[in-house]
Amino acid sequence: MNPPIVRGFKPYGKEQGADNLEAITLNFEEYEALKLCDYDMYNHSQASAIMNVSRPTFTRIYASARIKISKAFVEGRQIEIEGGKVYFDSEWFRCSSCGCNFNNPHMQEKVTSCALCGSKEVSSYPSNNEETATEDTCYCPTCGFEKRHQHGNRCNKELCPTCNKPMKRRGRQ
Amino acid sequence: MKIAITSKGNTLESELDPRFGHCAFFTIYDKTSGGFEVIPNPYKGSEEQAGTLAVKFLKDKGVEKIVSGDFGLKVKPLLDSLLIQMIVIKKPNITISQIIALINH
Q1: Residues A12, A49 within the same domain
Q2: Do the Cβ atoms of B77 and A89 come within 8 Å?
Q3: Could you tell me the residue range of the domain that residue A33 belongs to?
């Protein structure tokens, strides 16, 4: 997924008596579900395949996104988009100097400056939530090769591309 | 290092094209020599696979970074595996010369 271009939304023109209520946190996966379904016009099963979750799970995420957004609308609350268990297509960074987003294809090198303007004002995209990086990976016990777990595929049926041995799911035996 | 920028026209004053696969022109800027070439996108009109074909086209040109407004779902994993860096700029009216100025900072 692409990170959203804003971090949240604010209501304006409040009626008198409206309190300053706590903001509602919309998770990245809920944002993505809403985007795929209502902006990109995919149906639930296509969108669930893109997000690598099962179709019922997708519908749950989508329903939760709509409940949260309607709550924010009706109660006049802010929406913050952050957190959740998501996997970005690759690690994305944001430069606050020129406002661009960029990824880092060379994972072993650390990103210290913006790929475009070279400024040091970069932050990694889900910056404040450690849960965001998914731990759902498969690995090869022999050579240590890692790949993202494909939902619905059994890891031990897949072969490591380098040494042709069966893969294992991380964190499970 | 070669950097491809998707552009709407064939001059340096043209704007960044927000689409990747169906953009009008690719401006390929060579950071080491400072030269650039503008190539019309051969896959502009194709209905399918424009993004993936454009990636192959740019890979053959030796491009290491691509600047565009957005990248499609098929293009991203492909660029990831080819170790080509994606730079997304969400400013609608930025011109190619402004981007080149940013690259040279």
Answers
A1: yes
A2: yes
A3: 8-81
Which helix H or strand E contains B27, and what residues bound it? strand B25-30
> A101 and chain B: CB distance < 8 Å anywhere?
yes
Distance, CA of B21 to CA of B42 (rounded, Å) = 10
**Are residue A28 and residue A73 in the same domain, yes or no?**
yes
Closest residue of B to A50, CA-based?
B73
Query: Where would I find the beta strands (DSSP E) of chain A?
Result: 8-9, 24-26, 79-81, 92-95, 101-103, 122-124, 137-139, 146-148, 168-169
Residues B43-101 have pLDDT tens digits of 888 888 888 888 888 888 888 889 898 888 778 878 877 888 888 888 878 888 888 88
Q: How many domains is chain B partitioned into structurally?
A: 1
Q: How far is B42 from chain A (nearest CA, A)?
A: 25
Q: Taking CB atoms and an 8 Å cutoff, what residues of chain A touch B84?
A: 105
In terms of Cβ atoms closer than 10 Å to its own Cβ (0-12, 13-18, 19+), residue B96 is buried
pLDDT single digits (tens) B29-44:
888 888 888 999 888 8
* Interface with chain B: mutation pick from A2, A88, A95, A114, highest number of B CBs within 10 Å: A2
